[in-house]
Amino acid sequence: MTQRSAPVTSVPTPSGYTGKVAIVTGAASGIGAATARALAAAGARVVVADRDADGAGRVAEEVAGTAVTVDVTDAASCAAMVAEAVAAYGRVDLVACNAGLTTDPTPAVDIDEGDFDATFAVNVKGAWLTARAAVPALRAAGGGAIVVTGSVMGERTRPGFAAYAPSKAAANHLARTLAVELAPDGIRVNAVAPVATDTPMLSTFLGSADPEAARERFIASIPLGRLAQPEDVAAAICFLGSDAAAFVTGVVLPVDGGRSI
């Protein structure tokens, strides 16, 4: 299949991150790791936060940042993460609420209740707790930005994702609500809404006995003719968190190659 959009190999990051401090959750792999790399390349000091301590440590070493082990579903853990960021760097300017969870495609009536609860706990409560913990530090810095990783499935669902899609709809709307509430503090809040991205979670989203065929069918549904790469999403997060987006708040930005049109 001919690709109509060249794969991303590096992230064109906006300027303006020198001297700024960013926390990225879910940063041990995938979109979070790509975001940590992009922010570091743009001059930010990055706190690489993940429940996977080893993975966070590897990415932190790569970007000369600070690794923090965090459980985003636990308020005390989120507060400790922000405290470590302030202790290490003195301030917080950007928080990327990227930690996420999904389940295998399952009919709504068959989803395990524990899986349903866990999906909402990470994707919604986790984003809320992370943002809530960071707000005092962002206020102390004179303002800043929060970017939530939502999903196009929060706007346009698919069968089999009765836990994931509603959780991402809630995450998208959480960003909009926080944008209104925190605007007086000079804190901008936006969300990115990726399509299924070429990360370790992709096979879960495709959910097929023939992954390669499922992959090709999915690519065929994307107008730009290729899969989203973690770097595509990282570039959008970096833009929304930067001074280049100083008058952008409350936006849910699709990063989907046109699939949701």
UniProtKB/TrEMBL annotation:
InterPro entries: KR_dom (IPR057326), NAD(P)-bd_dom_sf (IPR036291), SDR_fam (IPR002347). It comes from the Bacteria. Gene3D superfamilies: NAD(P)-binding Rossmann-like Domain. Keywords: NAD, Oxidoreductase. It holds the Pfam family adh_short_C2. Residues 20-198 form the Ketoreductase domain. Belongs to the short-chain dehydrogenases/reductases (SDR) family. This is Ketoreductase domain-containing protein. It comes from Nocardioides lentus. The lineage of its organism: Bacteria, Bacillati, Actinomycetota, Actinomycetes, Propionibacteriales.
